[in-house]
Amino acid sequence: MMRDVDENKVSSVMISDHAEEEDLLIQVEEAVERGEDALPKFEILEANLKRHIYAEEEILFPRIEDGSWRPVVEELMNQHCAIWDGLREFKSNVGTSEAPKVLNRLYSLLKVHNSIEEGGVYGAVDDSMTTPLDLERVEVPLGWEPLFTINGAGLRSRRY
């Protein structure tokens, strides 16, 4: 559920989505702490984060015209892989004693990641995009992964 946002500003839409993701993550953590089945809430969080990452990498970041943001965007894309890996790790550890640790790492990573995006990258997107973003209508193609992925040597590389 999207909060009241200025739908004409990409930054407003994406920051609202960050808040929604944080709320979902807290709900997953609470379910884990109570010993409940956290998977249904987690799957909502996972779908939301994957859509968010896809929108950034395929729609937003390519539209940033100011080249000085390139190193920051590449770092954010590397972090997307770490977030993606964290989602996969939680799913494989749901119901175990590792689950809370994985969620804590994911929460910490998202806090840092989101502050970088909100601290300027989204402003650069606002400067470059003239059409609003309807995040709710963005669909992640089956099998899509972040553009920086783990290659056979265990190193992150840009997939083409």
Number of helices: 4
Rg, Å, rounded: 16 Å
Series of secondary-structure elements, N-terminal to C-terminal: HHHHEE
Percentage of residues in helical conformation: 55-70%
Mean pLDDT, rounded to whole units?
89
Describe the strand arrangement of the main beta sheet, using strand numbers.
1-2
Q: Main beta sheet, described?
A: 2 strands, antiparallel
N-C termini distance: 33 Å
Pfam families: Hemerythrin
InterPro entries: Hemerythrin-like (IPR012312)
Organism: Sulfodiicoccus acidiphilus
Protein name: Hemerythrin-like domain-containing protein
Characteristic key phrases:
mainly alpha; elongated; two-stranded antiparallel ribbon; 160 residues; 4 helices; Hemerythrin-like; 62% helix; 2 strands
Structure in words:
It comes from Sulfodiicoccus acidiphilus. This is Hemerythrin-like domain-containing protein. InterPro entries: Hemerythrin-like. Residues 13-124 form the Hemerythrin-like domain. By secondary structure, the chain is mainly alpha-helical. Helix content is 62%, strand content 4%. A two-stranded antiparallel ribbon has the order 1-2. Helix 1 packs antiparallel against helix 2 (39-60), helix 2 packs antiparallel against helix 3 (70-93) and helix 3 packs antiparallel against helix 4 (99-128). 24% of the residues are buried.
Helix and strand layout, with pairings?
Layout: H1 10-33, H2 39-60, H3 70-93, H4 99-128, E1 148-150, E2 156-158
Antiparallel strand pairs: 1-2
Helix pairs in contact: 1-2, 1-4, 2-3, 3-4
